[in-house]
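Weekly puzzle thread! Below is a chain. First person to post its structure in token form gets bragging rights.
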Amino acid sequence: MNMLDTIQLPSVLALKERLQSDPVFRRYRKAGEKVHQNQELLTLYGRYTTLQKEVVNLSHYKLAEATRQKEEELKAIEEALFDNPLFAEYMQLQVELEELLQTMAFLVESKVNSFLDEC
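Winning reply:
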């Protein structure tokens, strides 16, 4: 028997089940499905990511005025995205889900560290 066999941690399957049953995760999945079915949001988001890349490239070549113009366009698209209640909810749920995942990771890490301290 190795050390890992003696650690009393929930299995990966149990963690997955816990996550899938969480209300934030469920709402996030539903909102994500709706966002990915909304062609207007997908188009705006696609343009947003393209502009982000352009801003990075322009700033790399130290083209200040062109960078500023693209950043203004980027900001306008970001506002349009967050003005959409569906997208705003999706992004808020993404933040909440990230907090949940960090908490779960912290709990697993704490259990492992406690076990290692006992050895």
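Puzzle host: Confirmed. Bonus trivia for everyone else. The CA atoms of residues 5 and 40 lie 50 Å apart.
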